[in-house]
Amino acid sequence: MSEFKLNKYKLEHLFSYSVSVDANMDFMKGMPLGTRLTGYITGGEVWGPKLNGKILPVGADWSYVRKHGIVDIDCRTMIEAENGDHIYMTYTGRIDLGSEEAAVDYANGKLPPIMGNQTIPVLETNSKVYDWANRVTCFGIGRVDFTEDPIVIQYDVYAYYSTPFDKD
Question: CA-CA-CA-CA torsion for 152, 77, 49, 113, nearest 10 degrees?
């Protein structure tokens, strides 16, 4: 067997954002995959080296709380850049609640004060200025604060690039 080498890669911090979600969320129990939890976006801010602006008060997170303790994130929202251009952002991801008991609590609205999550944002725009957003593959590292009303969710978004031709 030939020697296996890991691919080289580069990370780039694109932007961070804070999104507000209405604390009056919808809980739909008895869905095929668990409990559907919908939180409606009320606004937010975007800042960073590649993008500054705001999160528009549109969209929501349609998460599924699965019985085994995993929350599947499914969010859609719109960013308005400081120049007025729009960037549509969707993201999926996961939250590991740790147990079936924690999933029951979460599905019944007994939310932990603070928790982390991981997402895979996809950006889309018709802006020539922000065309780079159509071309990147991203991941997000997040923190949810359920102690606020509205709920505050913050993310750091990074692009990652394969650099297979870099020398060791």
Answer: 20
pTM: 0.91
Residue 71 lies in a domain: yes
Instruction: Please report whether residue 3 resides in a domain.
Output: no
pLDDT 10s digits, 110-141: 999 999 999 999 999 999 999 999 999 999 99
- Token duo for residue 34: 């668990």
Helical (H) or strand (E) element with 11: strand 9-21
Residue 80: other Cβ atoms inside 10 A: 14
> For residue 24, what is the domain's CATH number?
2.40.160.20
Range of the domain at 39: 9-162
101 found inside a domain: yes
Location of structure tokens 């924690």:
102
CA atoms 89, 41, 43, 17: torsion sign: negative
